[in-house]
Design a protein that fits this description.
Layout (H helix, E strand, L loop, with lengths): L6 E3 H11 L7 H20 L2 E7 L6 E3 L4 E10 L5 E3 L1 E2 L13 H4 L19 E2 L4 E2 L13 E5 L4 E4 L7 E8 L8 E3 L3 H14 L9 H22 L4 H17 L1
Parallel strand pairs: 6-9
Antiparallel strand pairs: 1-12, 2-11, 3-10, 4-5, 4-11, 7-8, 9-10
Length: 256
C-alpha cells in the first residue's frame, strides 16, 4: 500500500475493500469505477487541489482556451513583480456572441452610445479625470486594473476585454479527475471511501438477502458518518485559532 506524505492511492482503497468484503479480484474493475465516483464526490467537496497554469491569449479575438479538465475557476489574472496574481474583474455583461470568430471585437461593439451621461444616453460614467469621464466602479482599492473577463463554458473559452494588454493569463482552477491517471486521496478519507464502496456495491441490487433495504440504509448512513469524521480530521478545529477569530470579531464589533 502506497503512502505519499499522508496520501494513499485509490488502488489501495479498492484492495482494502475487496479484502474486507471477501470478494475476488474479478470485481476489481467494478469497485474501481465506484471508487473513482466516490473520489469525485469527496474531492469536489473537500480535498481537490487547485491547479495553476499560464495560458496564452489568442490575440485575434482576445480569448483563452480553457483546459480540458477545467471544472471551475478560483482565480484569473496576471503576475506582478512579486509573483502574486493580480486578478481580473469578472464582467457578466461581456457577451459570448461571436467568441469563436477572429473578428469578435468588431462584432460586439456599438459606438452609437455616448461616453457621458445625458437624457439621450443610458450610459453613466461617474468619474471626471480633468479630460474626460470614466467609470471607476468595480476597480479594487489598492490594486491595478488589468482587465475584465467572462467565461463561455459551452465553448470552453475565457473572454477578455478589448485591448487586453497582456499576452497570457494565470488561471487557477479546480480540475476534473481522469480515469487513466493514478490518483491519491488524503489518508483521512480512507474509511469514508471504503464506506462509500460498501454502500454503492449493493445500492442498485434487487431487494434480496444480499441487498435488503435495511442493509442499504445502514451502509448509506455509515458512509455519511465516515464522511463527517473524515472532514473533521482533515480540517480540525483548533481552540487557539477559534480564540483568535473570536478576538478579531470582538474588535470589529467594538469598532463598528
Amino acid at each position: 500500500m502506497k503512502n505519499v506524505q499522508g496520501y494513499i492511492t485509490i488502488d489501495s482503497v479498492v484492495n482494502d475493500y475487496l479484502d474486507e468484503s471477501e470478494q475476488s479480484n474479478h470485481k476489481y474493475f467494478k469497485i474501481w469505477q465506484l471508487a473513482f465516483r466516490g473520489m469525485e464526490q469527496l474531492g469536489l467537496d473537500f480535498f481537490y487541489q487547485v491547479k495553476s497554469v499560464k495560458l496564452p491569449v489568442d490575440a485575434t479575438n482576445q480569448t483563452v482556451l480553457l483546459p480540458a479538465d477545467y471544472i471551475n475557476y478560483t482565480k484569473i489574472g496576471v503576475l506582478n513583480d512579486r509573483g502574486e496574481v493580480i486578478p481580473l474583474i469578472f464582467n457578466q455583461k461581456m457577451t459570448t456572441y461571436a467568441d469563436l470568430t477572429p473578428t469578435r471585437d468588431s462584432q460586439t461593439q456599438d459606438t452609437t452610445l455616448f461616453d457621458y451621461y445625458s437624457p439621450e444616453s443610458p450610459v453613466f460614467f461617474n468619474f471626471w479625470d480633468g479630460i474626460a469621464y470614466g467609470n471607476i466602479y468595480g476597480i479594487p482599492s489598492g490594486s491595478p486594473f488589468v482587465g475584465n473577463f467572462n467565461i463561455d463554458v459551452k465553448n470552453s473559452l475565457i473572454l477578455l476585454n478589448e485591448n487586453f494588454f497582456y499576452n497570457y493569463i494565470i488561471l487557477e482552477y479546480i480540475a476534473s479527475p481522469v480515469e487513466t491517471e493514478e490518483y491519491y486521496i488524503p489518508l483521512q478519507f480512507r474509511e469514508a471511501l471504503i464506506a462509500y464502496l460498501a454502500w454503492k456495491d449493493i445500492a442498485n441490487m434487487p431487494t434480496t438477502r444480499k441487498g435488503n433495504l435495511g442493509d442499504k440504509r445502514d451502509r448509506r448512513h455509515e458512509y455519511y458518518n465516515e464522511r463527517r469524521l473524515a472532514m473533521s480530521r482533515y480540517k480540525p478545529l483548533y481552540l487557539e485559532e477559534t480564540f483568535e477569530m473570536a478576538q478579531m470579531y470582538t474588535r470589529l464589533a467594538v469598532k463598528s
